[in-house]
């Protein structure tokens, strides 16, 4: 346990699915490390595990898509977090459409945006992708709540964690 763990244990932020298309491949994964990081200009950072296939595809991508899931989409979180694209075609198991630059956009999420990759930041076992938004959509405000970290504690990572 690290000195930071008691702090982290109190956080319950939204989780996201990040998708990418590059070099004829598609990939996507559940992401728990992500945050807006600038207002002007608008920027968002997502961190991808270096062990993840999505990271390997994203290294050469010009754009990524970030999806906010609803609490009713636990199955989608299990698919993108509990399966690895090294063994499973996740996009054959869910509805999606090509978005800007061909990046897969998942159907029926609370919101999504596609962002141009502006740079990378090596932070250890995850690499940050700095995104500048180019397109996005959101559902009308409803009673539908975002899927949060506490909702996915039962999802075992599809790729090794170390």
TrEMBL record:
Keyword Oxidoreductase included in the entry's annotation: yes
Keyword entries, A-Z: Oxidoreductase
Record-level Gene Ontology MF annotations: FMN binding; riboflavin reductase (NADPH) activity
Ranges where the Flavin reductase like domain occurs: 8-156
Statement: the UniProt record of this protein carries the keyword Oxidoreductase: yes
Protein origin, superkingdom: Bacteria
Protein known as: Oxidoreductase
Species per Swiss-Prot/TrEMBL record: Streptomyces flaveus
